[in-house]
Design goal:
The chain is of the alpha+beta class. Helices cover 37% and strands 19% of the residues. It contains 4 helices and 4 strands. The protein has helices spanning 7-19, 61-64, 73-89, 107-117, and strands spanning 30-35, 40-46, 51-57, 96-98. A hairpin with a 4-residue loop joins β1 and β2. The longest helix has 17 residues, at 73-89. The N and C termini lie far apart (44 Å).
């Protein structure tokens, strides 16, 4: 009988392949996105130093207070604007976008578009 990989295993494999090509530096860090069934998380990471420079998630009190749901495209767009503003405040203009193995549509695309509108370039 042929066994089929779970969606989570397929996504993890895609993410490993993507990470072979993407790396964040001090001048152009990596914007990493993860989404679960309940929340979304975004981090801006300098891979050379191994530091998270800026982070945001829908678990934070000030972000969660503005949202009616934490797992829809509106929440993703708001999170993208929050991470974009925090990055610009930290002096980051350009990033490399790491979609985390997720398909670039829906929540991931909404987060990316909102981050671009907030001032990030990728």
């Amino acid at each position: 009988m042929v066994s089929k990989k779970s969606r989570q295993e397929v996504r993890a494999g895609k993410h490993r392949r993507i990470r072979n090509h993407l790396s964040g530096t001090a001048s152009k860090p990596r914007l990493s996105v993860f989404r679960s069934n309940q929340h979304m998380y975004a981090q801006i990471i300098d891979d050379t130093a191994g530091n998270t420079i800026v982070s945001a998630s829908t678990l934070e009190k000030e972000v969660k207070a503005k949202l009616s749901k934490t797992n829809d495209t509106e929440a993703a767009a708001y999170l993208g604007s929050v991470i974009g503003k925090r990055a610009v405040d930290a002096g980051i203009k350009e990033v490399v976008f790491d979609r985390g193995g997720f398909i670039y549509q829906g929540k991931i695309a909404a987060l990316a578009d909102a981050a671009r509108e907030a001032g990030l370039e990728f």
